[in-house]
Amino acid sequence: MIGDFGSGTNHEWAVGRLLTSMHPDFLVGAGDNSYLVAAGPLLDRNIFRPLANVLSNAPLWTTMGEHDLFWRGGKDVADALDLPGERGRYAMRYGPVQLVVLGLEADSSAVAFARGVLERTTAPVRFVVVHRPVQPGNPILSVLRRYDVSAILAGHLHRYERRVVGGVLEFTVGTGGEGPGNLEFTKASPDALKSLLDYGALRVDVAGGEARSYAFIDERGRVLDRFAP
Questions:
Q1: Residues 127, 111: contact at Cβ < 8 Å?
Q2: Domains in the chain, please, with CATH?
Q3: Average of per-residue pLDDT values in the chain
């Protein structure tokens, strides 16, 4: 899983090589797939060249961030990646894993969408993907607890963070290549159990119908955080 990656920087290329070495079944993106905008002429530089090797063997299912939606409501990146749904909102199933992808944020319409998907379907392992991290008090948290969602996967904040928000595990992985920028806007969350300013990706290992382990691995291949439920 990566987020905030579409910059074409050397760091994104390094994260791309890291992802290739993992041999993932699929990739999850937390949005801001292309900087500064997700316009068609930029997508080769920002997505397809840095991630070419890993994307040749694994699909990327991503949501939309502000930089994606700014240009034609995200249509260019959605078409290029052949994403279903609109504005980064859809559900996807791969083996035992279900992704409920909410788009920019967990607002009231996203809560209704997630509730509908989770009520209608079943899956051994479920993740909710959203660009902006879910904050305490958000009504979606009770829905995710009710339907045993394993974790929220988010971006937006250009850090890696592991938190428990309203009883739900949440990973923020805005570390795919764009960088922290102004540290005034990249402050650690007060309730974070782990918070790091490093480039990298989150590896999630699923086996036996459950999420067995999570590991944040930096661009050099070092495991900087590991969690087993």
A1: no
A2: 10-227 (3.60.21.10)
A3: 97
